[in-house]
UniProtKB/TrEMBL annotation:
WD repeats lie at residues 169-211. SMART domains: WD40. PANTHER family: WD REPEAT-CONTAINING PROTEIN 89 (PTHR22889). The keyword Ribosomal protein does not apply. This is WD repeat-containing protein 89. Keywords: Repeat, WD repeat. Pfam families: WD40 (PF00400). InterPro entries: WD40/YVTN_repeat-like_dom_sf (IPR015943), WD40_repeat_dom_sf (IPR036322), WD40_rpt (IPR001680), WDR89 (IPR039328). It comes from Diabrotica virgifera virgifera (western corn rootworm).
Length: 273
């Protein structure tokens, strides 16, 4: 596995690693940790964050100024994520570890529009959710769970009819920490877990065995996954639970670059990020 010192070997300059950014507005939304963040894709976006005190806050950005427009009631369990609908700016998905993913219409925020749950779970055997994602066309929702009874699950719902479609439970041996749909193809999904594996699926296949296209071994514990493109090819970035960064070429099935936490910290200080 490479480390941050390999940077010169791959001839990557700082401009290829870091994008210069200017801070336009800054607001302290909470004294607690912020765990998740998402924003709508428009010129004056709404920004949602989940915090360590089990709340979700929504801010509007207008003329480079942030203003609070909504705050959820404190949840009973840890919030695992927030995600805006790609088609409806006012619709926000919020998930918690108790196995519930809610949709909130911010025009009527006091009313939960839809709830997605594991309807197959027996009493006192509910699965703990760690993560979720929504496909780019707002048709599929996927959630990853802790291990239960020896299995870790990726569960799928049809958003249009609020129906649990099924799940995968043979591809990971430890808690699933990330699920990410491809930004353009709803049939492509990656999942990552504390067993160090990243799985790539083709959801158009009928069985889990056929859907599992590839398994990548990070030799660490997966914390965060993202899709990106390099030379018009699909790639994956992985941040581990030790805050190291790996960049994976899916065609080659191996990381083409890896950076240690120490190296990234040094570069962030240099660039004042």
């Amino acid at each position: 596995m490479n480390n941050g010192k390999d940077i010169n070997h791959h001839n990557l300059c700082d401009s290829e690693l870091f994008v210069e950014c200017n801070c336009l507005s800054e607001v302290q939304v909470t004294t607690d940790y912020i765990f998740n963040i998402d924003a709508t894709k428009d010129n004056n976006p709404n920004i949602a964050v989940t915090t360590a005190n089990k709340s979700c806050l929504v801010y509007s950005l207008d003329n480079n100024q942030l203003a609070n427009i909504w705050e959820s009631k404190k949840d009973k369990s840890k919030l695992i994520g927030c995600k805006y609908s790609s088609r409806e700016k006012e619709v926000l998905y919020i998930g918690n570890s108790d196995g519930v993913i809610k949709t909130i219409d911010l025009r009527t925020p006091d009313k939960v529009a839809v709830q997605f749950k594991d309807t197959t779970a027996e009493v006192n055997k509910e699965k703990t959710f760690n993560c979720f994602d929504v496909s780019s066309n707002d048709r599929l929702l996927a959630a990853g769970t802790d291990v239960l009874g020896g299995d870790a699950f990726v569960l799928f719902w049809d958003i249009r009819i609020n129906k649990l479609l099924g799940g995968y439970w043979q591809s990971h041996t430890d808690d699933i920490t990330q699920v990410r749909f491809h930004p353009d193809d709803m049939n492509k999904l990656i999942s990552g877990s504390t067993d160090g594996l990243i799985n790539l699926y083709d959801l158009s296949q009928e069985s889990e065995d056929d859907a599992l296209i590839d398994t990548l071994n990070t030799e660490s514990s997966v914390n965060e996954l993202q899709w990106f493109t390099k030379n018009n090819k699909d790639c994956i970035s992985c941040v581990t639970h030790t805050s190291d960064l790996q960049l994976w070429d899916l065609d080659k099935g191996e990381p083409y670059q890896s950076f240690s936490r120490e190296y990234l910290t040094k570069m962030m200080v240099r660039h004042k990020l």
